[in-house]
Amino acid sequence: MTQRRENGLLDRTEVYFTVAHPTEGTPNRADLRKALSGALNVKGVVVLDWARSEFGRTATRGYAKVYKSKEHAMALEPLPILVRNGLAQKVVKKEEAAPKEAAAPAPRKEEPKAEAPKKEAPPPKEEPKKEAPKKEAPKPVAKEPAKKDEAPKEKKPAGKKEAK
């Protein structure tokens, strides 16, 4: 146990801890809760908030809260923490379950295909009415000097300059 603090306002004990496990891998949450309750001689509920082990080390550091009753822990702790500690069941939304059933396609019933109706001759098209051609005003043309012999220069990035 690294640090222990009594929180009178929330009526719980907060504990920072370090657990050594030289011969085993990282312990699971249930094993950590049992080890903490044994080390603290607690009859209440131990809620493990987080536990982290560093790569290459055989020790796990963490933070846990000890409550006197399960009801008090249920009232103060958020649902994801309670689910991780096995004190509450995960709530499944009805909206998520419904699309799974609707996602499965219904088997198609094969119906005999009806023959396509024969195409009749299209009705004769009416000739479009001829309109008088519109006269447009001539646009003024600006004269530009003709440069047929010169090829357009390639644009080069500003950062690169040619060496001569």
Order of helices and strands: EEHEEHHH
Query: Which value, in Å, is the CA radius of gyration?
Result: 40 Å
What does the main sheet amount to? 4 strands, antiparallel
Mean pLDDT: 79
Which fold name corresponds to the CATH topology of the domain at 3-88? Alpha-Beta Plaits
User: Which strands sit side by side, in order, in the main sheet?
Assistant: 1-2-4-3
Terminal CA distance: 75 Å
Helix content: 10-25%
Q: What is the top-level CATH class of the domain at 3-88? A: Alpha Beta
Question: Overall 3D geometry?
Answer: elongated
Low-confidence stretches: none
Count the E strands. Answer: 4
Looking at CATH, the homologous superfamily of the domain at 3-88 is RRM (RNA recognition motif) domain
Residue share in β-strands: 15-25%
Question: What do these coordinates show?
Answer:
With about 160 residues, this protein is of the alpha+beta class. The chain has a domain at about 5-90: RRM (RNA recognition motif) domain (Alpha-Beta Plaits, 2-Layer Sandwich). The protein has 4 helices and 4 strands, in the order ββαββααα. The protein has helices at about 30-40, 70-75, 80-85, 95-105, and strands at about 5, 10-20, 45-55, 60-65. Strands 1-2-4-3 form a 4-stranded antiparallel β-sheet. Strand 3 and strand 4 form a beta hairpin. The longest helix is centred in the N-terminal third of the chain and has 12 residues, at about 30-40.
